[in-house]
Specification:
By secondary structure, this protein is of the alpha/beta class. It is built from 35 helices and 25 strands. The protein is globular and about 75 Å long.
Length: 926
């Protein structure tokens, strides 16, 4: 078989559309054969027009560089001939190939004919857990050198080596996995089937190496690792300061003694040994995670037991395992047996996955996601679906294969269960690492999974409140209901059109009378649903006129839905579900074998019925159940009614539910609440009281040495306008000017923290319109694509960048070193008085005779403010400025409490001009 030649192509252009006059400014072609680069072609191209400034900024290709370059027409014939008898490869062929074809046409050449391969599509299949598939991201993850992104020569070479890495990864897969990929590859957008076939031919000649894998229903799975407790030499707790210092100095080349870190270690150790409950507030710079990890590990190993550690987010969990745990092992010179466990729905249901793999006639998105899943299943050790990076179209498929209680009851045949494996690992681990949601859900079960643990560390303890609130939250989404009805039948004709229902109609096993009754009832409930929603919308006192807000919210106390439609809809849907399940059970009594397609249709039918049951329970909880502790509100966008309709129901207080789940551990094991923010200046027990903790639970505060903050300063800009005395437009103009001046003075590397998405968007748009920061990369939450963590990683990658964020960026974000120079606080982080959930909590306090501003609004704002400052200094070598643009911090009586909440660092009240001079002087000293 003759080796294939691949032509790996990359273009830099003046824009995205050749039809609208955009032209190539650089082209690079790398020819690869036998997975070796055999030749390269690269050239600048004179586009015959000015290169837009943002393209020059992105590519660093200027008008001067292309001025003497030949136009595309002069190079077209040579490029065309280079591509003959090759497979065209690009990182996103949907851009490069059509653009090049259009340029060939413009040069008078025929359309290029040949196969093409897209390395975006290929790498998504073969590296399904990669964080991002942008060329600079995926190459960095795979260790492929990309010197200058967005330069065609470097991009093409990096793409060539990415293609080679994909081939090597493909050959590392099990034969059965590659065969399944090949079967599904004919429905991909690019011509990858030959690549998979070539790999099959090679693998079939190799000896079968299956020692590391097992096979379950034709799926290759990595053999589970037994998580045995690791015996080590006897550990003892380092009681004295000197002992601790020696351990740390031996583990780290450069170690700075932090006395309060050692004090916190002692507090955690004593709590575990004496089975006490404590709270520890540890400022940034303490080394909080190591301060609880080391005593926890020693306690677990000495007592042959298990300690649980709970965090709030997956990011914090990953940080603990990947960064902090290895440090603790280095300090103690021991290996730690660790088990990670999350809620059941985080894990894949293997049997459900295998059932759906039997379906071959599926959409592109579903077929593609199945290919990703097949590869992922071969390599995953956890079965945690959060490991996979999915496109939007794949999310629905993944939701169908999540492990649930009902799926586990349905599939008794499964001999491989990631969730049960995770639980089994818990029993044999030194540390069990989980999240707050799992703790709350698990300890509330009749048979808790984590009840054997002998100690708890609840990190980011203040977030336990949010986790408890969200656990009990119920959400009604109009689009989710309509989508679910659409999966069962038609939302226009209201007829059942699900493939399994049609199958039951075709076979003479169920009386047609029962099937017609099921369809008639489906018509009733879908029409009643529409009627109930329209009745609800007609009750809403929507704002009208020129000054109305598009997005509006209403507390549900004055809006009725429960009678009669809420009760009637619930009753009819319950009856329909019972009838559907009864008919399905009757049908399955017959011994005839179901075809593979019928089995898959049955699995999907049962999945849709389960989803409807879940939605029905939410309906009843929101509309038919009223608890004194609950508040409910409705949100809608008047531009898309009823599609934007959402209704939320949450408990106003959660201390009782927190008490209930932790009560079984109190006085039997140590419980350590820890966080960087547990107190506010005038209310040390603000968080403790909300958590329902007794006054007997001591609260310890640990502070980093004053020298830790030597590189930090606080600036209050005192010539900003008062937002209440100027228009919002004028205020935003002043904010934009302050941001621009700060960014230019610090050369980027700035976080800008807002409290409202609307002001963020208007500020960023104004800055973009003026072009004053065109030399900088601007990443804006809610405007730039990607998750919070993706925006953060992109921000860290570019030296000249600015990140604009709202609520979620105020905490839980680490940017150590020079990647962050300034944090700009646009507004003090008070909750909006009109925000529905806050409003309900405030009204409850007022009804109890309490001042909701001083007891709720102010403490919460101060906590967020402290968290915002915590983003700035993440190590003793960091330096940066914390800039406050909100004048209330100096004009209001409560302003001093915000300052008091910060570490003891210089606070300067200056004009914007004066601050900029100081910043330029400070940052130029380096």
């Amino acid at each position: 078989m003759e080796s294939q030649t691949y032509a790996i192509v990359d273009l830099e252009t003046t824009g995205h559309s050749s039809q609208q006059g955009d032209r190539i400014i650089q082209i690079a072609i790398v020819l690869m054969k036998d997975w070796k680069v055999i030749s390269t072609y690269t050239s600048f191209v004179n586009p015959g027009k000015k290169i837009p400034y943002f393209i020059q900024d992105l590519t660093h290709i200027t008008d001067k560089e292309v001025h003497d370059a030949p136009p595309f027409e002069k190079q077209a014939q040579q490029i065309y001939e280079l591509l003959q008898d090759t497979v065209f490869v690009a990182h996103n062929t949907d851009f490069d190939l059509p653009f090049l074809q259009a340029e060939f046409k413009r040069a008078g050449l025929p359309k290029w004919i040949g196969k093409h391969m897209d390395t975006v599509e290929l790498s998504k299949i073969l590296f399904p857990t990669a964080y991002s598939f942008k060329l600079q991201d995926i190459t960095m993850e795979l260790g492929i050198r990309l010197a200058h992104a967005h330069r065609a020569d470097d991009d093409a070479l990096a793409t060539a080596y990415l293609l080679k890495a994909c081939w090597e990864e493909l050959l590392s897969l099990q034969l059965v996995t590659i065969e399944q990929l090949h079967q599904r590859s004919f429905r991909l957008k690019s011509d990858l089937s030959q690549l998979f076939l070539d790999a099959i031919h090679i693998k079939r000649k190799q000896p079968n190496n299956s020692e590391s894998h097992l096979y379950y229903r034709d799926i290759a799975l990595k053999k589970p690792m037994k998580n045995n407790k690791m015996e080590s030499e006897k550990l003892h707790y380092p009681s004295s300061f000197k002992e601790k210092e020696k351990l740390f100095e031996e583990a780290f080349n450069t170690f700075e003694v932090r006395p309060d870190q050692f004090k916190m270690m002692d507090a955690v150790w004593q709590a575990l040994v004496t089975k006490q409950e404590i709270m520890t507030e540890a400022s940034t710079g303490i080394g909080k995670t190591l301060a609880y990890l080391i005593p926890s590990i020693i306690f677990a190993k000495k007592n042959h037991c298990t300690v649980g550690i709970s965090t709030y987010t997956s990011h914090l969990l990953d940080q603990l395992l990947q960064e902090e745990l290895p440090k603790a092992e280095a300090v103690l010179k021991t290996k730690v047996s660790t088990a990670i466990v999350k809620g059941m729905e985080h894990y894949v249901d293997i049997d459900r996955m295998c059932d759906l793999l039997q379906v071959k006639e599926d959409s592109y998105d579903e077929n593609f996601t199945k290919m990703q899943m097949i590869v992922w299943l071969q390599g995953t050790e956890t079965g945690d679906l959060g490991e996979i990076t999915l496109s939007g179209g794949g999310q629905y498929f993944v939701d169908k294969i999540r492990r649930t209680q009902t799926t586990s009851e349905t599939h008794h045949k499964s001999t491989y269960d990631f969730y049960l494996q995770a639980l089994s690992n818990c029993r044999d681990a030194d540390l069990v690492v989980t999240n707050h949601a799992m703790v709350l859900a698990d300890l509330g079960r009749e048979e808790p999974i984590l009840e054997h643990l002998n100690g708890w560390i609840l990190d980011e303890g203040h977030q336990f409140l949010q986790a408890a609130t969200l656990r009990d939250e119920k959400i009604f989404s109009y689009t989710q209901w309509k989508y679910l009805f659409g999966q069962i039948g038609s939302t226009e004709t209201h007829k059942i059109e699900h493939a399994f229902y049609l199958c039951m109609q075709e076979e003479d096993k169920i009386p047609l009378r029962q099937l017609f009754a099921l369809e008639l009832q489906f018509q009733d409930i879908t029409k009643l649903f529409d009627h109930a929603i329209h009745r609800l919308l007609n009750q809403l006192p929507l704002q009208k006129g020129k000054h109305r807000q598009n997005k509006q919210s209403f507390l549900l106390t004055n809006i009725e839905l429960t009678q009669p439609f809420g009760v009637e809809f619930s009753r009819k849907l319950t009856h329909w579900l019972n009838l559907a399940e009864s008919i399905t059970t009757t049908y399955l009594r017959y011994p005839d074998e179901l075809s593979i397609k019928q089995q898959a249709n049955l699995a999907d039918w049962q999945y849709q019925l389960r989803e409807l049951k879940i939605r029905l329970a939410e309906w009843d909880a929101i509309f038919l159940s009223h608890q004194e502790n609950d508040t409910a509100w409705l949100e809608i966008d008047t531009r898309s009614m009823p599609g934007s309709l959402h209704i939320f129901k949450r408990p106003v207080r959660v201390e009782d539910s927190i008490t209930n789940v932790l009560q079984s551990f109190r006085h039997k094991t140590g419980i350590v609440w820890t966080s960087g923010t547990l107190t506010v200046p005038n209310d040390r027990r603000f968080i403790a009281n909300q958590l329902g903790l007794s006054e007997n639970v001591p609260l310890y505060q640990f502070q980093a040495p004053k020298s830790y903050y030597d590189g930090a300063s606080v600036y209050i800009v005192d010539d900003m306008p008062d937002i209440k005395k100027v228009t919002q437009t004028a205020y935003i103009e002043s904010v934009a000017e302050a941001i621009v001046q700060t960014v230019l003075a610090t050369e980027g590397r700035c976080f800008v923290l807002f409290t409202a998405q609307d002001m963020l968007r208007k500020t960023v748009e104004l800055i973009q319109e003026t072009g004053t920061l065109d030399d900088y990369m601007l990443f804006a939450q809610g405007m730039s694509s990607g998750s919070r963590m993706r925006l953060l990683k992109m921000f860290q990658r570019f030296e000249h960048s600015v990140l604009f964020g709202t609520n979620s960026f105020w905490e839980g974000v680490d940017v150590p070193g020079d990647a962050l120079s300034a944090v700009i606080v646009v507004r003090l982080p008070f909750s909006s008085p009109e925000e529905s959930f806050f409003k309900a909590r405030a009204e409850r306090m007022t009804s109890q005779g309490l001042n909701s501003f001083y007891k709720l609004s102010l403490p919460e704002a101060i906590l967020r403010f402290k968290q915002g400052f915590g983003r700035l200094i993440r190590s003793s070598h960091d330096k940066g400025v914390f800039i406050v643009l909100d004048r209330r911090i100096e004009t209001k009586s409560y302003g001093s409490e915000f300052i008091e909440a910060l570490p003891d660092i210089p606070v300067k009240k200056v004009s914007l001009e004066h601050m900029v001079f100081e910043l330029e002087d400070w940052y130029n000293k380096d």
